[in-house]
Structure prediction request, 133 residues.
Amino acid sequence: MAHGTSEGSGIPSSFAGLDPAQIAIAERLLRLVRAVFGHPPDVIGDLGRLHECLREAAARLPNQEPDPLGVVILRYGLSTGKPLTLGEVARMLGYTRERIRMIEEEVIRQLKHPRYSRFLRASFYTHEAQERL
Prediction:
């Protein structure tokens, strides 16, 4: 689906029918895709599948505290649509900002693995954009 926007709203047309909270969460997921590839998505793909990839990637990391999935959900606002700063997540979970940053980087690194990145590329980038990644 093309990444067009609704008339004058700046909201991708594929978000039509979503309530504001769902839009905020979808925008956070797309921000995560950008973090993985360094480029904004040019196609809106299956956001539910992106969330599944995130869960699978976090689950593949060694058991550790705090929970990697929880860190990324809080950092990117995937449950509320409101992302939190490193400091906010650190205070909430009782860890240092540096530890939270390291966990976030580990999850993003895991999402770059071909197991996930192939899906992410195909879902969120046109063929031409995929060749640039």
User: Anything to note?
Assistant: The chain is about 60% helix and 0% strand. Residues 1-10 have pLDDT under 50 and may be disordered.
